[in-house]
Amino acid sequence: MTDLNRSALILVDIQNDFLSGGALAVPDGNSILKPANLLGRLSFRAIIATQDWHPADHCSFSAQGGPWPPHCVAGTHGADLPFSLSPAPITHIVRKGVLRGRDSYSGFLDNDRATSTGLDGLLKGLGINHLVICGLALDYCVSATALDAVQSGYRTEIVPEACRGIASNPEPALEKLERQGVTLRSVSAF
Question: Domain Isochorismatase-like: where (predicted)?
């Protein structure tokens, strides 16, 4: 069994709007809930959920010229974590994309690549040096979070069966992550 005392599980954007029936549903997104809940039962030092938490007129929304339909508007059901994701083990929540004029795919930095979400400081304060990452969407927010984790010096693993992407084929995203220093690990390997 892996010693997870200096490890954190990062649950990236597992929110109602990214699941089946949501405003920006990731194909087959609901299939990650069971493996994510299994990971949540392990003895990580911290389990941190990231949440898109957008103002109603966020720059990423199509009405403001952005690429996406309105989603994860702060305080709405779509922005909430789903009831089917066990909330008991979650120790911290980091909200991102909170400013009207700037998006944030990564759990670490806004897309301006300068503004921190506070995740790195939280992890350092907890003495974390290893991250296990899962969530939605693999080819956007999960990848951005994992790449920033590597850049920030964390030993970083992704659990592919607990991730889904917008693209139907996850292999290009997973191969890119591996080339950048991210390790792929299955739930059963813990």
Answer: 7-181
Q: Is 17 a catalytic residue?
A: no
DSSP string, 43-71: --SEEEEEEE-B-TT-TTBGGGT-SB-S-
pTM (two decimals): 0.97
Q: What per-residue confidence (pLDDT) applies to 87?
A: 83
To the query of whether residue 139 is one of the catalytic residues in this protein, the response is no
Distance CA 37, CA 45 (A): 16
pLDDT at 136 over 60: yes
96 is catalytic: yes
ω into 137 cis (within 30 of 0): yes
Q: What is the pLDDT of residues 97-126, one digit of tens each?
A: 999 999 999 999 999 999 999 999 999 999
Helix pair angle (171-179, 143-151), 10° resolution: 0
Catalytic residue among 72, 141, 148, 163: 141
The CATH code for residues 4-189 is 3.40.50.850
In this prediction, residue 2 carries a pLDDT of: 66
Domain range annotation of the chain? 4-189
- The helix/strand/coil state of 3 is coil
